[in-house]
């Protein structure tokens, strides 16, 4: 993997040089991990004028969630506690003879930026912007493989839960069980806080589990994700508990399923992000649920659970091949509940079979 990380740093260095900066300081943890292979707590990456360095508060550990540093990348640990790697790296950049340093201003605090200026007053600090985030959008096959394994783990955890007794158990208990199963099957941990929503809570995006107990006839909506080697995917499904679904539940489910299918089928290299959102939103909007729809239909995933691109009405840009995204339309009816269906897919050209579905748990409306 050393060659992969080195190639990523080279691409970033070329962008910096084109913008007039001889060096760059990367501080956002996901970006550090993308370029260095690991992101120990508080670590920063210096793309220096003469040498690249991973600057840490101490020697990197071996925690699964932190990754393993690129063996070809020198590591500089601060000599004592209480130091700031970003400030130390700024001094190192100046010592290497750089006259400018591009920084991630969107991640740095004002106080931290001020401290960096004070340690190297002659060094011109510029804004790197979202350059690393832009590089991260298109994934290589190794990254997609990690997402694929994470999806398999999430599918397995969800499948096992569906085989257990659900009536009488609380949302909170089911969420904790799902997160335990993710780790049991090899995940670093959950990709985000698992959402389990029942009855009137179902279908609500980002619902935090409560002590409400599962009841007969409830909609049960679940959204979970696994992190594997730092890469995060997600899946969301909705079921009916213990009985045949009511007519209104079948009608609402069929509408959301049709919307989700339309969004999935719209994924293709060159497709507008806005058009994908429109494809999924249109069926629900025309059925009168426009006011109940979330702000976006989906988003990119990777080292973070919410990355570019965004699939929303105001989204700019087009999709590329090898971009993993979610398609997750849903409708929540206050006081009644709702439906959410969420998949992680990879954009692929038609010649390669079209979008690759990573999360494969059935989308049939099951009565559990």
UniProtKB/TrEMBL annotation:
Keyword Protease found: yes
Source species, domain of life: Bacteria
Pfam family, one: Peptidase_M24
Transmembrane regions: none
Residue ranges of the region described as Disordered: 191-211
Domain (Creatinase N-terminal) ranges: 8-138
Entries under CDD domains matching the protein: APP-like (cd01092)
Record-linked InterPro entries: Creatin/AminoP/Spt16_N, Creatinase/aminopeptidase-like, Creatinase_N, Pept_M24, Peptidase_M24B
One Gene Ontology term of the molecular function aspect: aminopeptidase activity
Alphabetical keyword list: Aminopeptidase, Hydrolase, Protease
UniProt entry tagged with the keyword rRNA processing: no
Domain Peptidase M24: 146-348
Protein name in the entry: Aminopeptidase P family protein
